[in-house]
Amino acid sequence: MAGFISVCGLALTAGDITREDIEILKRSYRWMTISSFVGWMSGIPVFFLSKRRVPPPPLVMRIFASTLVGMTGGFMGFTAGGAAAAMEVNKKMPDATRCVS
């Protein structure tokens, strides 16, 4: 995050972006991190509910299954959060005029 802040500071002083643009980018970054975390948490119920099966699966299999579901949920959450972030940026951030030299 420190690299992001220093790059934004340089862009602010150059006049390329405004503080509102930085707030929109921070909000979109927050969407991606929260949705990825929620996706990872989807593996917790799998771990506990798989114990109710008859016969109960071994511990290693429960850990493997819950990790696999958590990784898949994290990937899907990150993808959905990225899409939501991109839509928010496209909706709220005006296009800047570009100078090509």
Would you write up a description of this structure?
The protein is an all-alpha fold. The protein has one domain (19-92). It contains four helices and no strands. It has helices spanning 2-14, 19-40, 43-49, 59-92.
Portion in beta strands: under 5%
Structural class: mainly alpha
Task: State the order of secondary-structure elements, H for helix, E for strand.
Answer: HHHH
Number of helices: 4
Low-confidence spans: none
- Using only C-alpha atoms, the radius of gyration works out to 20 Å
Per DSSP E runs of 2 or more residues, the count of β-strands stands at 0
Calculate the terminal CA-CA distance, rounded to whole Å. Answer: 30 Å
| Helix proportion range | over 70%
**Integer tally of domains:** 1
Structural features:
single chain; 101 residues; mainly alpha; 4 helices; 0% strand; rod-shaped
SSE map:
Blueprint: H1 2-14, H2 19-40, H3 43-49, H4 59-92
Helix pairs in contact: 2-4, 3-4
Short overview:
The chain is mainly alpha-helical. The chain is 75% helix and 0% strand.
